[in-house]
Amino acid sequence: MDKIAVYPGSFDPVTNGHLDIIKRASYIFDELIVAVFNNPNKNPTFSMEERVELMQKVAGDIPGVRIDYFSGLLNEYAVQKNARNIVRGLRALSDFEKEFQQALMYKKLNPDLEIMFLMTSQEYGFLSSSLVKEIASLGGCIDGLVPDPVKEFLLKYYKKQKQKK
Length: 165
Ligand code: ADP
Known about the structure:
α1 (16-28) links the parallel β1 (4-9) and β2 (31-37). The chain has 165 residues and is an alpha/beta fold. 30% of the residues are buried. It is 45% helix and 19% strand. The protein starts with a strand and ends with a helix. Strands 3-2-1-4-5 form a five-stranded parallel β-sheet, with helices on both faces. It has helices at 16-28, 48-59, 74-80, 93-109, 129-137, 148-164; strands spanning 4-9, 31-37, 65-70, 85-90, 114-119. The protein is globular. It binds adenosine-5'-diphosphate (ADP). Adenosine-5'-diphosphate binds next to α1 and β4.
């Protein structure tokens, strides 16, 4: 039976930290579904279409990786996709408490699910989508933090925002 995993996230937008987790998880599983999540409790900067399109551009060609999106309950989505594994990334201790609580909840809702954590690579331990957006919005350099298509997209977006003001 194929080992299928879901890597869910807001990816608002995808960073090199996310991409690193995607590549490493793709070596572990036969199929990795990167699922852009429409979280009603979060107010993303970019639309679902924009986030999925960027993810498709930067990770769509990685062997064994498929890009999708979903809303609703992650454990139900995983069952629909025949995935028994959920992948999450861990940066610092600050990620741990929320992730731990969520993982236990998913396990309670669906005991067949395994939630697996990949530790961030050292060079991405400080990296988050919100920090990248903050730097880009202030005109700072985001080289090496996001893949090139995301960089171009962000530069265009914040240039437009500036012109609006
Ligand atoms: P969410 O809203 O689900 O937290 P994110 O897009 O912020 O969505 O993150 C998706 C997943 O990727 C989470 O498990 C998060 O911990 C992980 N992640 C985010 N940034 C990094 C990074 N720099 N290194 C490793 N994992 C990361």
